[in-house]
Amino acid sequence: MARLISLVEDASPLLREVATALAPHTGGARVLGLTGPPGVGKSTTTTALVRAFRAAGRRVGVLAVDPSSPFSGGALLGDRVRMQDHAGDPGVYIRSMASRGHLGGLAWATPQALRVLDAAGCDVVLVETVGVGQSELEVASLADTTLVLLAPGMGDGVQAAKAGILEVADVFVVNKADRDGADQTVRDLRSMLSLGGRHSAAGAWRPPIVKTVAARDRDNGVDELVARLDEHAAWLASSGERERRRLERATREVEAIAVAGLRERMGDVGGSAALAALAAQVAAGELDPYTAADALVAQL
Ligand SMILES: Nc1nc2c(ncn2[C@@H]2O[C@H](COP(=O)(O)OP(=O)(O)OP(=O)(O)O)[C@@H](O)[C@H]2O)c(=O)[nH]1
Ligand SMILES: [Mg+2]
Q1: Are 38 and 150 in contact (CB under 8 A)?
Q2: Ligand 1 environment, Cβ below 6 A
């Protein structure tokens, strides 16, 4: 698994062959995405969920994706240390992945890595990403269920969670509920959710809000969180949303690979004689740049 994911990270040409071989073995894993502001407790919650799923006898994969750094930075190394709880358990596979600097970024690399974990027989895959910029939206497009984590007293976590993050959440987790202000955070969230959005339509899933103290070993709200996640999984199956999400995921995946391929071929074209000839014509005023670009694309 480690070697296959390294092929993904390196955008190896071998991936085509690997992807063909893996395809018939995929589709069994349930993908849970965790996102939220830095330090909110995503890794701690992931660890607690891994423990819960292992207790239920499920095989678990974890991908910690850092979209901001091409290297394994301090935070990811920290994650590895904390997740040492599960080191030596053959039913758990944990991998940190940096996606910047790789062809297509998070959108391209993460689905491929997910396929590896899926094909390897993980029943559940947890994907952790820091909720900054586009990454929370990208993780949402990858996951069957998206968990958005907030915590009280984080310079107003709810405000930090902009409209986009509220829209993508299937389950809200107010972590660090041992701290003052957790109930206020829950109330703020409730009132923001009552303002509408996709959740207000008939038959729509209404995202529950679960309070957790992920850092605690017991009495930490994680059992309730697992129960809400199971409810969401049941709703996904009964409403047809699971298939719809998977289709959308596949659509984006194919598109991302196709666009990356085109971009690469355009790169090859960069110094080509065809481009030089067209550019000379445009510079001389013999041809307009749109017609020249069409001619170039037609040659691909
Ligand atoms: N008081 C309290 N602290 C917690 C709780 N959960 C996590 N923490 C602490 O919060 C800090 C950050 O936790 P992480 O799990 O690393 O948070 P994260 O969201 O993964 O952080 P990044 O990956 O760096 O964005 C750690 O020191 C945890 O021990 C909790 O429920 N209560
Ligand atoms: Mg983390």
Answers
A1: no
A2: 38-44, 75, 130, 175-176, 178-179, 213-215
Model confidence, pTM: 0.84
Element (H, E) at 80: helix 74-82
Q: Of 280 and 154, which is predicted with more confidence?
A: 280
Ligand nearest to the CA of 214: 1
Measured distance CA(142)–CA(32) in Å, rounded: 9
- 255 alpha-carbon distance from chain centroid: 17
How far apart CA 36 and CA 135 sit, in angstroms, is 10
3-state secondary structure (DSSP) of residue 147: strand
CA distance 29 to 118: 5
Neighbours of 44 (CB within 10 A): 21
What is the secondary structure of 97-110 as a DSSP string? EE-TTSTTHHHHHH
Q: 3-class SS at 202?
A: coil
Sheet holding 124-130, edge to edge: 92-98, 60-66, 124-130, 30-36, 145-150, 171-174, 209-211
119, 25 Cβ separation under 8 angstroms: yes
How many other CB atoms are found less than 10 A from the CB of residue 63? Answer: 26
Ligand 1: atom nearest CA of 40 is 19
Report helix, strand or coil for 146: strand
Question: Any idea which ligand is nearest the CA of 38?
Answer: 1
Average pLDDT over residues 23-47: 91
Cα–Cα distances (Å) from 117 to 53, 64, 255, in that order, read: 16, 13, 22
Beta carbons of 122 and 27 less than 8 angstroms apart: no
Task: Give bridge partners of residue 35 from the DSSP assignment.
Answer: 129, 148
Q: What is the pLDDT of residues 229-253, one digit of tens each?
A: 999 999 999 999 999 998 988 888 8
Ligand 1 centroid – CA 122 distance (Å): 25
By the CB criterion, residues less than 5 angstroms from ion ligand 2 are 42-43, 79
